[in-house]
């Protein structure tokens, strides 16, 4: 192993930038999380109020509901993306004419800005303008109105997220599949395993790190989704799609409730880190296991 | 004439600035001595009146003074966020900010804005002879403090009116059908029952005739505060509940504490308003003020409450609207007794909206900004600006030939605004405008989706506002 | 060998592509219609092309400025992030650093913060703290370029880690034995082998930077505004100018497509995170 000083030097620029633009703001948020501070309160100055914000949060129905919704959203969106992404990646492993073209098409949604994605889906789904509600009604007599029915709105945001981010999952899993070693599969075939057995006992364990890593990245991003949903539903109808990022945004921006919003962010950040740490621990354990072998 | 020589010299500049008065064209270059080359920056919501400032008035001002104007026209949420952050943190990014009528009391409470009256008095050399506060409509009173000092120069103002499809209302066949059904004459509604009846009639009429049309618009976005605004500013007052149902002395919202937000009248109002959704196009639950205007312009509603800033383009611009020449304008329908209260000044029947430009204390170019504000407040620029954005802030603009001409095309909207304007009023003088709105919004949204019954929604909204105002320290 | 059924698979991919393309196609349809044409029953067919939406957008000097800003910011950020991430992952992979797994995980946590509340401290930093005479980070390209590192660096490090880990250490050792310096090992040995991974990391960070909205909207004003903020502005304009917004969205897609096309052939080879070659 080489001198660790050089190693830290290589890491230094990254750490410095993350410290200035990531940690400094975080410290600030940490401080105001323990204050009562609203620009338009009777007393607009910042005042230390201990853990009052956190105490209030534990009984704040809107916040807890928003957290629960976000988890639900994250679960459905990421789970569907992994399933669909895996399926597409497996199919892309085969050879067929026009593969490169189809792969490009299936990568497209990835490069569209979330805010444009939200706007596009809004154009698709708003009654009176969008074709989806129109034709659903014409052909099946189904009434689609995501600004009126809470379940439809939730599903719409999940579907939009699936559309937008499945390409990323497909690409990463495709890369992982492409780099799998051949021997275990050949061995399994010699042993007479059927397709399901091969998938369950060979493919899945080998793919596990890549899947966990993808879940990790996707979950992280899904939990802080703002732009797309803001454009599509604005968090409505009611609070049906008011995910935590959006909820915090409403508390901090229009309501200018900085202290309370900061406390909310801290709790959310903490929960996200814990969840991701669990995933990560799974990953590292796996890697260490492999090394030990 | 003393000014003659300079007048000739500035003739070139004056022709460039087609809309400014040549007689005072030289004041600007004089006043701007020493400020040439300065840059002022402002933020506003991207609306037609703002864009007119950005595209026409700002370049003309630069031409006249040598002061560059950087005008940031952005979305409504962003505009607030950035202006408030700038003033709160005292950073001095903006030299003038857009002040919507309803936020002025919050800004004044925080002493964010420069007292323009004082500033003009103390800097006589910066006071334009063509800028005169007395020329403005009474809308400017919204931007005065208790002493009558002005903190903002109005740049747009309009009333939220009742628009209806004149062509349909006057169609003998339609009138006959209406008469046959309800045994009454079809005319613009004057009360809520009539309004509902007409909405019901047109919804069914459209269905029978295969038209993509409904009886009314409703600004009922289930995820945007626009719906809260329509309810508290345009519906509640027509039921005789003023100031959002919040007591202006004690700041109490709920009946238990002495407010009116969840009073029987307020519940009746919400029930009526939510009930209108049955006769409104499906996009209503995602409609803000913009979409309401678009819906009406698309011919998808027979009547509705629409912000006046849209009246002109809906009635005249065939590129954007399918109902050109078919728009009628009237006063909103009210409950019995409300009109009398409005006429006596005790109450009001709707929302008089608009905004002004003010100078934040944090600005580092206050002199240049003051010049700019006076520039856009001149008499001579008003008429063309009004044509572009259907906004009127000067009394004399109403009589300008261009506006008189336009008035005919929009079924007398300007006349209505001029004559009946006093029946409308801006938002109540609350320093916690956004906070109260955000507190009640979730429950209004849930009433729209049907998760809560109107009565229940208002009980919860009133309780939430009470709690929020207590938390903010406005209520004991 | 797998059996090939070209007809079936082409059919499948065509249907799947149509579903993927539907929203984009609809955006295109909207962009090619005037406001009045948008009313009425929606149709997927285009009878005429209303070019004004595109012309208005392209002629708008603000849009041109936004576009240039976006290109400069996204490209600089992608280059910066990829370079720094290469350094960082090389350090994490090749050096024995105390608590490096924790350092690694900590860098990732920077991407997890809910963005809204961090806008306030960043706004203060940009307008009041990082100030030199009259120069502020607020409303500058460099401000956004540095800020985007906060969420792009974690992603890049995460992606590149397994790429670098996958390059056999024996190659480094062999080079050192031949007398190469650390810098030479990094640039002559590791860099060429990591190219596909770097390309794909670069493109994805570019895309993230190109697409970012919330920070750009708050931390810029006039000079450094990006196209995504421009998009949002169309939405709240009176009458909701959907046609022009769609046209703008279509135009912002073009540079992203070009960049994607450039690295398309690397994209699969490069994205190997988690799948360490033994």
Query: Into which percent range does the helicity of residues of chain C fall?
Result: over 70%
Helix content of chain A: over 70%
Please tell me the CATH architecture of chain A by its name: Orthogonal Bundle
CA radius of gyration of chain C: 23 Å
User: In CATH's first tier, which class of chain A applies?
Assistant: Mainly Alpha
Q: Which parts of chain C are unreliable, with pLDDT below 50 for 5 consecutive residues or more?
A: 274-278
Low-confidence parts of chain A, pLDDT < 50 over ≥5 residues? none
CATH topology of chain A: MetI-like fold
CATH class of the largest domain in chain C: Mainly Alpha
- Cα end-to-end separation of chain C: 25 Å
User: What does the average pLDDT of chain C come to?
Assistant: 84
What is the total domain count of chain C? 2
Number of strands of chain C: 2
Oligomeric state of the chains present here: heterotrimer
Counted by DSSP, the helix tally of chain A is: 12
What CATH architecture of the largest domain in chain C would you give? Orthogonal Bundle
The largest pleated sheet of chain A is described as:
2 strands, antiparallel
Descriptive overview:
The complex is a heterotrimer of chains A (293), B (476) and C (278). Chain A is mainly α and 293 residues long. Chain A has helices at residues 4-32, 52-58, 61-92, 99-107, 114-125, 131-140, 150-178, 183-190, 195-223, 227-232, 244-252, 258-292; strands at 35-36, 47-48. A two-stranded antiparallel ribbon of chain A has the order 1-2. Chain B is globular and about 75 Å long. In chain B, strand 1, helix 4 (48-65) and strand 2 (68-74) form a beta-alpha-beta unit. Chain B starts with a helix and ends in a 5-residue tail after the last helix. With 278 residues, chain C is mainly alpha-helical. Chain C has 2 domains: 1-50, no CATH class; 53-270, MetI-like (MetI-like fold), CATH 1.10.3720.10. Chain C contains 13 helices and 2 strands. Chain C has helices spanning 6-31, 35-38, 52-59, 61-94, 100-109, 115-129, 141-165, 169-177, 182-211, 214-219, 227-236, 242-263, 267-270, and strands at residues 131-132, 135-136. In chain C, a hairpin with a 2-residue loop joins strand 1 and strand 2. The model of chain C is unreliable at 274-278 (pLDDT under 50). Classes of the chains: A mainly alpha (293), B alpha/beta (476), C mainly alpha (278). At the A-C interface, helix 1, helix 4, helix 5, helix 6 and helix 7 of A face helix 1, helix 4, helix 5, helix 6 and helix 7 of C.
